[in-house]
Amino acid sequence: MTDAEELRSRTRELLAAHPPATTDRLDFLRARFDAGLAWVHYPQGLGGLGAPRALQAVVDAELEAADAPDNDPRRIGIGLGMAAPTVLRYGTEEQKRRYLRPLWTGEEVWCQLFSEPGAGSDLAALGTRAVREGEDWVVNGQKVWTSSAHLARWAILIARTDPDVPKHQGITYFICDMTDPGVEVRPLRQITGEAEFNEVFLTGVRIPDSRRLGEVGDGWRVAQTTLNNERVAIGGMRLPREGGMIGPVAKTWRERPELRTHDLHQRLLKLWVEAEVSRLTAERLRQQLVAGQPGPEGAGMKLAFARLNQEISGLEVELRGEEGLLYDDWTMRRPELVDFTGRDAGYRYLRSKGNSIEGGTSEILLNIVAERVLGLPAEPRTDKDVAWKDLAR
Amino acid sequence: MSTQPDLLYSEEEEALRAAVRDLLTDHCAPADVIVRTESDAPHDLALWKSLAEGMGLAGLLVPEAQGGQGATHREVAVVLEELGRAVAPVPYLTSAVVATEALLACADEELLTRLASGRTIGVLAVGLHTAPGAALKPVRLEDGALHGELTGIADAAAADVLLVPADDGGLYAVAAGAVTITEQVSLDLTRPLATVTLDGATGRRIGDAEPAVRRALRAAVGLLASEQLGVAEWVLTETVRYLKERKQFNRPVGGFQALKHRLAQLWLEVVNLRAAARDAADALASGEDADVRVAVAQAYAAPVAVHAAEEALQLHAGIGMTWEHPIHLHLKRAKADSIAFGTAGAHREALAGLVDLQAP
Fold first, then answer.
1. What is the third-level CATH fold of A110-216?
2. Are B352 and A265 within 8 A, CB to CB?
3. pLDDT (0 to 100) of residue A239
């Protein structure tokens, strides 16, 4: 068992052998991975030491104090949060060794080819086909809402390999090379003016069977690992008071007394309290995880943040009055990462509309809470025993 | 903030919860509480004796040197969660928290020891609706005797001693036998209010009223959130249970999405309330940033507890409107609690000053 003291001394050894001030950023990150200090809860040889997850904080604190470079986790969030845990759980030894190191160092960016125009909340209805030809699978179909597809080297992909069985059974999980012929990425411009994500067209893309993750037809189960990790990601963040979307509004209120009205004051105070309580709930969830007693609270956190972000940013546009009629810049841009609190109030208002849609709509999450946490009866399922090819479309 | 609050429950706190819940399961059934509300004795003094003398819970906040347990607000919060679940008709919040905190501010060892034992019930003679920052309504001190009428005094009917603020700025301990206590008809049947009339009653000056009352009410505001958490949690649990059983249109009612979403939303509010209530208890125990953290908890707690009880009633439909089903006890407690020690609006106003979000 690796304890905090051992991790601290291993981190100091890394820093001594590769002083951040004189070491190339990528060389440092590679050395950190090889020392097992990338994600300490991963196995030895794969960037970790099989240590408790909570002890990562010990390593991070040492490295931060030494001003060591990090792997820019926000830019490679999909790889870290979704692809990596899935590769770790379902990948072959060869796959783990090939993909995890450049994923963690940020040398290779990942994206997620899950959603389709006809398969959003009903993701298992997806229609992208993968047909076996010798040692390869030939993939045809269209994906949508793909963040980072224009930057990505790899994608996690789910595709239908058997249309003759019910929809959850005929899906297989692959790793797709985004540089292969037949992969076409088109920017999809959003209400903010930015093209933060993409449509991806797959035409005759050949994926070798060695890039399959999990068994043929078992892709839905593999995808659950990806999706569960997507929703867990939020719990790890630790914010100070006024650390989220409420911060800029409170600042505007303090600095601009001429904008204040009694109605806005009442609404601001109410939202301030709700934001603070949400922050405490996230902190409590984090403490539960550290104490090894994970609670179901995480299922609700995304719901709460989505609603609050939308209400708070909407309030700020109103608070700004005449200025609220303006927008900073409608230029079509392709940001590398999404900064929810960056830019101006109008951007925050429009972008936060996506918070109740991306990563599972609020309506679907309410169903999940009702069924999995409260144990209420599941929605009636008329498609359970019907072959995918026979479903109405 | 320099240190992170501890928002979890310790093993000892969970053991305390289990012990209190066991006792309440055996001795505070909802049907018995309903019957008691219509009797001549609205308070369950036998239950109080078990909690206070049997388990030593009346003295949780009192140092061991004065016969108490030397525990903190964190443990008291756990007790209040359980008392809230059961809407137990005992003067715990009023005697073991509010009056006790006032005595701690006055450092009155003799009375503290008596309250800690649970054999004496103390009540602060300040209207239940009073917020920590509100002006007090004192009685007149004339020739060493107290005169005046105080209304809305919670649990006065069960009190042995009243702590009365007088117009000389002092806080006086007055024996219940020396005053006239007239019960009022209260919205919350399980925490009855009374009018206290002092007609030349003599009392013992135990300290300054203002700091003692402020301290007592601040603790009340913070810990009331835990009682409200208990109320909200019980009504949610009961409603989920009922909606899994109750069938209409040949399906359990809880399977309809419109109702599932309302229950999920309620669950989320209760989860948030738990974090807020724990934070307030932790703030009172540590004293760190307590004014803000207590006000945040109470500004959030009151609307959630009322919403939970109102949703529970609606989702129980007809049976929820009946006297025999205990939901009305919880609704009445939740609604009364939303006024007790200041409304959510009053706490938000206090926050505006504390966190520099000034009114126009």
1. Butyryl-CoA Dehydrogenase, subunit A; domain 2 (2.40.110)
2. yes
3. 85
